[in-house]
Design goal:
152 residues, endopeptidase fold (from Nostoc punctiforme), two-stranded antiparallel ribbon
C-alpha cells in the first residue's frame, strides 16, 4: 500500500512567515540598469519589505516574480487573483499594505498579518524581519489595504 501524502501549503506558508523572524537574508537585491553598475537597490535592508513579501509569495506560487517595490508587489497580487478584504476581517496569511511613516518618508510598507493584531515585516532600522503590532506601536502607521488569496 502506498501512503497518500497531502501537502499543506497554507500551513507551510504561515510557518515560513513565522520562522523568518530575525533573518537578514532579504538585505540585498542587486540590479543593473542599461549596462550601468550593479547596485543594491534595497540599501542593505533599509527598503526590503517588497523583496521579502514577494519572495515568500513566489515560493508558494502566489506571485509571478520577485519585486523590489511595494507598487509592483500590489500589481502582481492583483494579477495573481488576490482579493481586497476589509481590515476588520483580517486573517492570518493576509498581506497588509501600510502608509508611509510620515511626510518625510511617504513610502508604503508591506508585510504579513499573522493574527492577534500582529504582523511580520522588515525593519528598516534593524535591517531584518521582525514581528510587531499591526500599527507599529507609537508610529501608528495606517493600514491602506489588505489582500487575501482564496486559492490555497
Amino acid at each position: 500500500m502506498t501512503d497518500k501524502v497531502e501537502r499543506q501549503y497554507f500551513k507551510s506558508y504561515l510557518a515560513m512567515i513565522d520562522n523568518s523572524v530575525g533573518t537578514e537574508m532579504f538585505r540585498s537585491f542587486y540590479v543593473r540598469v542599461n549596462d550601468g553598475p550593479v547596485t543594491d537597490i534595497i540599501g542593505s535592508g533599509e527598503n526590503a519589505c517588497a523583496f521579502y513579501v514577494s519572495t515568500i509569495l513566489l515560493v508558494f506560487g502566489k506571485q509571478k516574480s520577485v519585486h523590489a517595490t511595494v507598487k509592483s508587489v500590489i500589481t502582481d497580487l492583483e494579477e495573481s487573483g488576490w482579493e481586497l478584504v476589509d481590515e476588520n476581517d483580517m486573517k492570518a496569511g493576509d498581506v497588509i499594505v501600510w502608509s508611509g511613516r510620515d511626510d518625510d518618508n511617504p513610502s508604503q510598507h508591506i508585510g504579513f498579518y499573522i493574527g492577534d493584531n500582529l504582523a511580520i515585516s522588515t525593519s528598516s532600522n534593524e535591517q531584518k524581519v521582525f514581528k510587531h503590532d499591526i500599527h507599529f506601536g507609537q508610529v501608528q502607521r495606517k493600514i491602506m489595504s489588505v489582500y487575501r488569496s482564496q486559492n490555497w
